[in-house]
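To the wet lab folks,

You asked to see what we're planning to order before we commit. Fair enough. Below is the target structure as tokens, and below that is the sequence we designed to fit it. If anything looks off to you, flag it before the synthesis order goes out.
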């Protein structure tokens, strides 16, 4: 896409990335891509808000020039130093070496660490303003959403919030960057997956930031990833408040690992029993086949969670260990959780589950169900009891 006009003097100069397969080296995005959104305010003084990932820097600079022509760039506003938003800074400075770089006191040490940039820096604090002519920008600090230097920029004239990673999502917009020209339902899961994996660990800080931003009039939201919200910014505001408040829907995720099918049979038995108990939404995931980002996305959505795994050399099935690590990080303290562990000659998975329960402070519906080999009749009865307890717990 070419540069896109958002307001009279405000333009999108971002890029779509379909080359990167793993966002942050972890989260699959090869199917839907991701956008790196950056913006230009073409006023008496020209301000650029954020750069893009360096692999797309040429396209980004070309778009800037298509808007400002031969004008100089006065300011680069750095809302966030993560390299998907900042690594294009080297190419930008090569083109516009006299730019004054605007950030907060936590921005510049990270900038020096990444790019050894120490000159032409302008520090701003909470509530500070910067006049560009017609437009006045105001800055709000949002620390640990999701890095310590994170901040957002607000255009007080057009009521545009340049929100950094807040209100972002996976999935590159196709054909149009605006909410009213896209299928919002198609962005719901990529938004939740992005939030759960990237922001979920700091949900408390995110909620504080959202409460702070609730005090300003917002007409348009311009995040660093995903759609520009010009028609219905309340949609993404409400979605982010719900996710940050850890409000869940009635449903159950069953995530399991299985080497030879025994644990899988237990998981499938649970799924059938949950349906028989009237649970409307039941999601069944094999952790060896589904990337944990998709599992975590649904865990963030639904109230109930079952985790099941076989023992593996006295420990737990490694793919489940990976999921437990991430769940310990983001917390599932607002869930009802049940556990089942399978073993052949000795346990081990149960010890890992017990450690997770203690570390993550989860609300457990019952003791860990231990199954030896293929679930027998008594195991099936116990699994049905677990399903009934879960169905009652999430009502």
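Sequence we intend to order:
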């Amino acid at each position: 896409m070419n540069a896109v006009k958002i307001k009279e003097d405000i333009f999108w100069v971002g890029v779509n990335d379909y080359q990167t397969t793993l966002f942050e080296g972890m989260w699959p995005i090869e199917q839907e891509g991701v956008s790196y959104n950056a913006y230009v305010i073409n006023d008496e003084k020209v301000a650029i808000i954020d750069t893009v990932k360096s692999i797309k820097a040429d396209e980004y600079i070309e778009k800037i020039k298509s808007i400002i022509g031969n004008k100089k760039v006065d300011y680069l506003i750095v809302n966030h130093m993560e390299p998907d938003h900042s690594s294009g800074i080297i190419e930008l400075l090569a083109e516009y070496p006299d730019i004054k770089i605007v950030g907060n006191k936590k921005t510049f040490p990270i900038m020096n660490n990444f790019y050894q940039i120490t000159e032409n820096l302008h520090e701003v604090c909470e509530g500070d303003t910067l006049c560009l002519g017609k437009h006045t920008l105001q800055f709000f600090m949002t620390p640990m959403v999701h890095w310590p230097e994170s901040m957002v920029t607000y255009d007080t004239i057009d009521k545009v919030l340049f929100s950094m990673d807040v209100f972002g999502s996976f999935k590159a917009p196709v054909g149009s960057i605006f909410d009213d020209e896209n299928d919002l339902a198609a962005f719901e899961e990529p938004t939740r997956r992005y939030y759960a994996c990237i922001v979920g660990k700091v949900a408390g800080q995110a909620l504080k930031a959202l409460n702070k931003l609730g005090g300003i009039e917002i007409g348009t939201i311009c995040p660093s990833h995903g759609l520009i919200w010009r028609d219905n910014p309340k949609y993404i505001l409400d979605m982010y408040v719900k996710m940050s408040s850890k409000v869940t829907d009635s449903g159950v995720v069953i995530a399991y690992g299985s080497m030879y099918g025994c644990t899988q049979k237990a998981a499938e038995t649970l799924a059938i029993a949950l349906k028989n108990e009237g649970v409307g939404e039941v999601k069944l995931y094999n952790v060896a086949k589904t990337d944990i980002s998709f599992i975590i996305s649904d865990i963030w959505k639904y109230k109930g969670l079952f985790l099941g795994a076989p023992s593996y050399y006295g420990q737990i099935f490694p793919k489940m260990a990976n999921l437990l690590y991430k769940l310990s990080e983001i917390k599932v303290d607002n869930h009802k959780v049940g556990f089942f562990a399978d073993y052949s000659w000795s346990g081990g998975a149960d010890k890992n589950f017990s450690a997770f329960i203690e570390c993550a402070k989860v609300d457990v519906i019952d003791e860990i169900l231990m199954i030896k080999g293929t679930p027998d009749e008594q195991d099936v009865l116990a699994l049905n009891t677990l399903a009934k307890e879960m169905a009652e717990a999430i009502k």
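Structural context that might help your review: The two ends are 47 Å apart (CA to CA). The domain at 4-244 is CATH 3.60.15.10 (Metallo-beta-lactamase; Chain A).

Thanks,
Computational group
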